[in-house]
Amino acid sequence: MVKKLLLIITVLLSVNSYSQITFEKGYIIDHLNQKTECLIKNSDSKRNPVELEYRLSDESEIKTATIQNVQEFGIYNVFKYISATVNIDKSSNMLGSLNTTKDPLFTEEKLFLKVLVEGKANLFEYSDSNLIRFFYNTADGTLTQLTYKKYLTTDGQIATNNAFRQQLFSDLKCDAFKISTFETIEYKKRDLIRIFSQYSECSNVEVVDFRPNIKRDLFNLTFRPRINNSTFEMNGSSTSIYNVDFGSEIGFGFGIEAEYILPFNKNKWSIAIEPTYQNYKSQKRFTKIGFNAGSYEASIDYTSIDVPISLRHYFFLNNHSKLFLNVSYVLDLSAKSNIEFRRSDLLTENFKIEANKNYTVGLGYKLYDTFSVEFRYQTRDALGEYLLIGSSYATTSIILGYSIF
What we know:
Order of helices and strands: HEEEEEEEEEEEEHHHEEEEEEEEEEEE
Largest sheet: 11 strands, antiparallel
CATH topology of the largest domain: Porin
Distance between the termini: 34 Å
Strand content: over 45%
Structural class: mainly beta
Radius of gyration: 31 Å
Number of domains: 2
Number of helices: 4
């Protein structure tokens, strides 16, 4: 098990170093206002960059540009950044780091700001770990932070400075806007994009929304038949008749997987649940000498409905194919499963296999978001309820998949 896990991790690390570096068609405008068409590295980071990597063609060397010599850059249909010197308040909103000052503590910095909306008024975002700040400007071109700050009152209560609502009410004048329009706005990207878009539309000014226009496939339903190679070994004391290796058996199983693609990090993460039927049957005849001497027959019939709950990460190879890694917590709903020991056709012992929890790992490949194949390894103790009897049940599966949507 450990060796297989190490192999999977090694393979994925090598794939990750390749697949996560993508250069996409974009442009750079330097401080002399010269525009260069190029390929820009899309690291898909949640933080605003301080520099960017680019290349002039697929074969050319990778170059680095910094905020000191770039005034604007972007990847077409993905994002756009501008460089600007602004006053920014970096006061933390985390509970353990709040201060007692209501007013923002501004410092002047030169930053790359992400463009969210362009129109009669423009909206920008700055993000760095847990810090998110929004900026805006109107016709005069002055970039100003929208003020939002959590702080502690003199009696230790948490209060919020929502001055950004007054800023928006003062600067975004539209006949359709009332005071109540701004009273419920949250300091969130969704709410701010909406109000800035409505403001431009109110003045019949074209709105450019820089959120990627990507149709996301949020949910997949996949039929997943499989071939299982399973082994079962039962362990008792050294003199016990209950030391039996039932050997390797080939079997078949079938599952239906419901997968939800998480709405961040460019569709690289998902959660899946997959009710699966599988069965293991085997018989062994053996002769015992000495204590409990005689001829025995042991048989196992293990039928289960497994319900893996999986966290999955995708590694994109190109626009049509990707690798993925699963780690799963598995609920085992065993049904009428037992191990029987007989001596001269007389039942001597019947062990009931109880439902158990276990874990799996899987490595797979998916093509066109439709066809998939996965290698999965799973192990469990099916006799965990017995104090003096143990077991080792391991299954290696080759799983085929066909997604209907």
